[in-house]
Amino acid sequence: MIEDQDFIKTCDVPGPTKEAIRAIILYKSDVKDTDNVVDIGCGTGGITCEFAQRAKSVTSIDINPQAIEITKKNLKKFGLENNTTLIQDDGENAVKNIDNIDIAIIGGSGKKLENILEIVNTKLNPKGRIIITAILVDTKVEAVNKLKELNYNPKIMEVNISKGRVLDRGIMMMSENPIAIITAKKR
Fold first, then answer.
1. Where are the domains of the chain?
2. Strand pairing class (36-40; 57-62)
3. pTM above the 0.85 mark?
Protein backbone atom coordinates (compact mmCIF):
# COMPACT_ATOMS: atom_id res chain seq x y z
CA MET A 1 0.00 0.00 0.00
CA ILE A 2 1.14 3.50 -0.76
CA GLU A 3 1.14 5.69 2.35
CA ASP A 4 -1.11 8.76 2.37
CA GLN A 5 1.74 11.21 2.92
CA ASP A 6 3.59 9.93 -0.17
CA PHE A 7 0.94 11.21 -2.61
CA ILE A 8 1.24 14.53 -4.38
CA LYS A 9 -1.79 16.60 -3.30
CA THR A 10 -3.37 19.96 -3.93
CA CYS A 11 -6.11 21.95 -2.24
CA ASP A 12 -8.06 22.06 -5.53
CA VAL A 13 -8.42 18.29 -5.96
CA PRO A 14 -9.98 15.90 -3.42
CA GLY A 15 -7.93 12.98 -2.19
CA PRO A 16 -6.23 10.76 -1.90
CA THR A 17 -8.72 8.34 -0.42
CA LYS A 18 -7.21 7.33 2.92
CA GLU A 19 -4.95 4.27 2.98
CA ALA A 20 -7.24 2.14 5.17
CA ILE A 21 -10.21 2.89 2.89
CA ARG A 22 -8.13 2.00 -0.19
CA ALA A 23 -7.19 -1.30 1.49
CA ILE A 24 -10.85 -2.18 2.06
CA ILE A 25 -11.74 -1.23 -1.53
CA LEU A 26 -8.94 -3.44 -2.86
CA TYR A 27 -10.09 -6.33 -0.68
CA LYS A 28 -13.74 -5.93 -1.65
CA SER A 29 -12.86 -5.67 -5.35
CA ASP A 30 -11.06 -9.02 -5.40
CA VAL A 31 -8.81 -7.49 -8.07
CA LYS A 32 -6.75 -9.84 -10.22
CA ASP A 33 -3.88 -9.19 -12.63
CA THR A 34 -6.25 -9.93 -15.54
CA ASP A 35 -8.82 -7.26 -14.57
CA ASN A 36 -9.62 -4.09 -16.48
CA VAL A 37 -10.52 -1.38 -13.98
CA VAL A 38 -12.30 1.94 -14.48
CA ASP A 39 -11.94 4.62 -11.79
CA ILE A 40 -14.62 7.28 -12.25
CA GLY A 41 -13.88 10.45 -10.32
CA CYS A 42 -10.20 9.66 -9.72
CA GLY A 43 -9.28 12.86 -7.85
CA THR A 44 -5.57 12.71 -6.95
CA GLY A 45 -5.34 9.10 -8.11
CA GLY A 46 -5.01 7.22 -4.82
CA ILE A 47 -7.31 4.41 -5.92
CA THR A 48 -5.92 4.51 -9.46
CA CYS A 49 -2.36 3.99 -8.17
CA GLU A 50 -3.34 1.07 -5.96
CA PHE A 51 -5.19 -0.71 -8.78
CA ALA A 52 -2.41 0.07 -11.29
CA GLN A 53 -0.11 -2.06 -9.11
CA ARG A 54 -2.47 -5.03 -9.26
CA ALA A 55 -4.72 -4.96 -12.36
CA LYS A 56 -4.07 -5.53 -16.06
CA SER A 57 -5.21 -2.01 -16.92
CA VAL A 58 -6.74 1.03 -15.25
CA THR A 59 -8.70 3.78 -16.97
CA SER A 60 -9.11 6.84 -14.77
CA ILE A 61 -11.68 9.52 -15.43
CA ASP A 62 -12.20 12.95 -13.94
CA ILE A 63 -13.90 16.04 -15.31
CA ASN A 64 -11.40 18.26 -13.49
CA PRO A 65 -8.23 18.79 -15.59
CA GLN A 66 -6.26 19.47 -12.39
CA ALA A 67 -7.28 16.03 -11.05
CA ILE A 68 -6.02 14.36 -14.21
CA GLU A 69 -2.74 16.28 -13.93
CA ILE A 70 -2.24 15.31 -10.26
CA THR A 71 -3.14 11.68 -10.98
CA LYS A 72 -0.61 11.69 -13.84
CA LYS A 73 2.07 13.05 -11.48
CA ASN A 74 1.28 10.41 -8.84
CA LEU A 75 1.37 7.60 -11.39
CA LYS A 76 4.75 8.84 -12.61
CA LYS A 77 6.08 9.24 -9.05
CA PHE A 78 5.28 5.61 -8.27
CA GLY A 79 6.26 4.26 -11.72
CA LEU A 80 2.73 3.11 -12.54
CA GLU A 81 1.94 4.90 -15.78
CA ASN A 82 2.47 1.89 -18.10
CA ASN A 83 -0.94 0.24 -17.69
CA THR A 84 -3.06 3.35 -17.14
CA THR A 85 -5.14 5.61 -19.35
CA LEU A 86 -6.31 9.02 -18.14
CA ILE A 87 -9.44 10.64 -19.53
CA GLN A 88 -10.41 14.22 -18.71
CA ASP A 89 -14.17 14.15 -19.27
CA ASP A 90 -17.50 13.77 -17.57
CA GLY A 91 -17.80 10.22 -16.19
CA GLU A 92 -21.05 9.56 -18.01
CA ASN A 93 -19.58 10.54 -21.40
CA ALA A 94 -16.26 8.79 -20.91
CA VAL A 95 -17.59 5.43 -19.77
CA LYS A 96 -19.78 5.19 -22.90
CA ASN A 97 -16.59 4.62 -24.90
CA ILE A 98 -15.08 1.96 -22.63
CA ASP A 99 -15.76 -1.74 -23.06
CA ASN A 100 -14.57 -4.85 -21.26
CA ILE A 101 -14.87 -3.59 -17.67
CA ASP A 102 -14.17 -6.03 -14.85
CA ILE A 103 -14.22 -3.52 -11.97
CA ALA A 104 -15.88 -0.11 -11.97
CA ILE A 105 -15.10 2.20 -9.07
CA ILE A 106 -17.27 5.27 -8.77
CA GLY A 107 -16.06 7.94 -6.41
CA GLY A 108 -17.34 11.01 -8.18
CA SER A 109 -20.39 11.09 -10.40
CA GLY A 110 -21.22 14.77 -10.82
CA LYS A 111 -24.87 14.11 -9.88
CA LYS A 112 -25.13 11.51 -12.67
CA LEU A 113 -24.72 8.34 -10.61
CA GLU A 114 -27.85 6.61 -11.90
CA ASN A 115 -26.91 7.24 -15.54
CA ILE A 116 -23.33 6.10 -14.94
CA LEU A 117 -24.56 2.91 -13.28
CA GLU A 118 -26.86 2.17 -16.21
CA ILE A 119 -23.98 2.54 -18.67
CA VAL A 120 -21.52 0.58 -16.50
CA ASN A 121 -24.09 -2.21 -16.23
CA THR A 122 -24.04 -2.63 -20.03
CA LYS A 123 -20.21 -2.58 -20.17
CA LEU A 124 -19.48 -4.80 -17.18
CA ASN A 125 -18.16 -8.28 -17.91
CA PRO A 126 -19.88 -11.32 -16.38
CA LYS A 127 -18.99 -11.49 -12.68
CA GLY A 128 -17.80 -7.89 -12.91
CA ARG A 129 -17.80 -5.75 -9.77
CA ILE A 130 -19.03 -2.26 -8.98
CA ILE A 131 -17.69 -0.30 -6.03
CA ILE A 132 -19.14 3.05 -5.05
CA THR A 133 -17.72 5.30 -2.37
CA ALA A 134 -20.15 7.82 -0.92
CA ILE A 135 -20.08 10.39 1.85
CA LEU A 136 -23.57 11.83 1.36
CA VAL A 137 -26.55 9.87 2.69
CA ASP A 138 -28.47 10.77 -0.48
CA THR A 139 -25.75 9.21 -2.66
CA LYS A 140 -25.81 6.03 -0.58
CA VAL A 141 -29.57 5.66 -0.97
CA GLU A 142 -29.44 6.52 -4.68
CA ALA A 143 -26.68 3.95 -5.30
CA VAL A 144 -28.37 1.11 -3.44
CA ASN A 145 -31.75 1.77 -5.05
CA LYS A 146 -30.30 1.94 -8.58
CA LEU A 147 -28.23 -1.20 -8.09
CA LYS A 148 -31.33 -3.06 -6.87
CA GLU A 149 -33.27 -1.77 -9.90
CA LEU A 150 -30.49 -3.12 -12.15
CA ASN A 151 -30.87 -6.53 -10.46
CA TYR A 152 -27.74 -6.41 -8.29
CA ASN A 153 -27.61 -7.39 -4.65
CA PRO A 154 -25.73 -4.41 -3.18
CA LYS A 155 -23.88 -4.55 0.09
CA ILE A 156 -23.08 -1.42 2.05
CA MET A 157 -20.66 -0.76 4.86
CA GLU A 158 -20.01 2.47 6.69
CA VAL A 159 -16.35 2.93 7.49
CA ASN A 160 -14.99 5.37 10.03
CA ILE A 161 -11.24 5.22 10.40
CA SER A 162 -9.73 6.96 13.41
CA LYS A 163 -6.06 7.45 14.10
CA GLY A 164 -4.65 8.09 17.53
CA ARG A 165 -2.72 11.18 18.49
CA VAL A 166 -0.65 10.79 21.63
CA LEU A 167 -1.06 13.71 24.04
CA ASP A 168 0.55 14.36 27.43
CA ARG A 169 -2.50 13.06 29.28
CA GLY A 170 -3.66 10.30 26.93
CA ILE A 171 -4.53 9.38 23.39
CA MET A 172 -7.03 11.36 21.33
CA MET A 173 -8.69 9.56 18.42
CA MET A 174 -9.25 11.65 15.28
CA SER A 175 -11.72 10.48 12.64
CA GLU A 176 -10.51 10.44 9.04
CA ASN A 177 -12.53 10.10 5.85
CA PRO A 178 -15.84 8.62 7.11
CA ILE A 179 -17.32 6.97 4.03
CA ALA A 180 -19.69 4.28 2.83
CA ILE A 181 -18.42 1.58 0.52
CA ILE A 182 -21.14 0.02 -1.60
CA THR A 183 -20.27 -3.15 -3.49
CA ALA A 184 -22.18 -5.23 -6.00
CA LYS A 185 -21.33 -8.13 -8.31
CA LYS A 186 -22.88 -8.75 -11.69
CA ARG A 187 -24.96 -11.89 -11.67
1. 4-185
2. parallel
3. yes
